[in-house]
């Protein structure tokens, strides 16, 4: 019920019927505290991050040129160079290669587990 109260999704009739003064008073006090505390925490986090962002201003010309290049490619006004296409294909190939090596590692682990199970099953059958 407290979580529903924090989200403001609850029926206050139940609480007000519990006591004529104490129910509404505690509800109002809880809502005020939670809303103001949560709001102040949220604003302080936002404020702190904006302050940090203002301190770490990145003046990198590569960022702007990258944005312009991607926009021109997206609109079709500039064709992608051959080396970029080849680099993307190489990246996809590397990802596929890593995926197969991960699969190989999993398969070898499964094989080792099966051999261990067979070995222990034979050992317990002989005893």
From TrEMBL:
Location within or outside the cell: Membrane
Q: What cellular component GO annotations does this protein have? A: membrane
Q: How does it sit in the membrane?
A: Multi-pass membrane protein
According to UniProt, the name of this protein is Polycystin cation channel PKD1/PKD2 domain-containing protein
Domain Polycystin cation channel PKD1/PKD2 stretches: 1-51
Pfam families on file:
PKD_channel
Q: Give UniProt keywords alphabetically.
A: Membrane, Transmembrane, Transmembrane helix
- Span-the-membrane segments of this chain are 20-46
């Amino acid at each position: 019920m407290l979580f529903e109260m924090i989200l403001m999704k609850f029926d206050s009739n139940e609480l007000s019927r519990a006591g004529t003064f104490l129910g509404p008073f505690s509800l109002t006090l809880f809502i005020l505290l939670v809303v103001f505390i949560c709001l102040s925490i949220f604003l302080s986090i936002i404020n702190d991050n904006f302050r940090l962002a203002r301190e770490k201003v990145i003046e990198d010309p590569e960022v702007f040129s990258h944005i312009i290049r991607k926009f021109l490619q997206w609109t079709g006004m500039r064709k992608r160079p051959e080396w970029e296409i080849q680099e993307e294909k190489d990246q996809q190939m590397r990802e596929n290669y890593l995926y197969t090596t991960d699969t190989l590692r999993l398969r070898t682990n499964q094989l080792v587990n099966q051999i261990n199970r067979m070995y222990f099953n034979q050992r317990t059958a002989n005893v």
